[in-house]
Design goal:
By secondary structure, the protein is an all-alpha fold. The protein has helices at residues 9-12, 15-30, 46-59, 65-70, 75-79, 86-103, 107-124.
């Protein structure tokens, strides 16, 4: 940041450490979610967490590593292969809500961040078919379930 430039949202909320805490807490919830977890093809959620963190950091004015590694985010296109229904969206938002709350950001920053996450989650819904199986197993149409920022969305 230059002396006369306004700090970015990324800088105002604490930079890398804040986004790392957000994503780590979010994926701790996903790891035990019977609908979301089976939708990540990787055994280790670490690579998915890294991609989400890099995306969020770039979006909010931090390093541009996400774009350098993966190109344009193309979120809708990257999520087309996944069964993103309202249940999956709501579970995603539930885990993200816990993560955002634990950051204890000032109200303006919390509201700004949450509004974006909520809009993004709603925009990713691509089906209204119910989640198949009790554990969110394979879908009848052959598409994997929800996998926000999973390896297979490259």
């Amino acid at each position: 940041m230059t002396d006369d430039a306004m700090p970015t949202f990324y800088e105002q909320v604490g930079g890398h450490e804040t986004f790392r805490r957000l994503v780590d807490r979010f994926y701790a919830g996903v790891a035990t979610d019977d609908v979301l977890r089976p939708m990540y093809p990787e055994e280790d959620l670490g690579p998915a967490a890294e991609r989400l963190m890099l995306f969020l950091e770039q979006y909010w004015g931090g390093p541009t590593t996400y774009g350098e590694r993966r190109g344009h985010p193309r979120l809708r296109m990257r999520h087309v292969p996944f069964h993103v229904n309202p249940e999956a969206r709501d579970r995603w938002l539930g885990h993200m809500r816990v993560a955002v709350d634990e950051l204890q950001l000032p109200e303006l920053y919390e509201t700004t961040l949450w509004d974006y996450l909520e809009r993004a989650a709603h925009a990713m819904v691509n089906t209204f078919e119910p989640t198949p199986g009790a554990a969110g197993g394979p879908n009848p149409d052959g598409r994997p379930g929800l996998g926000l920022h999973s390896e297979s969305t490259r």
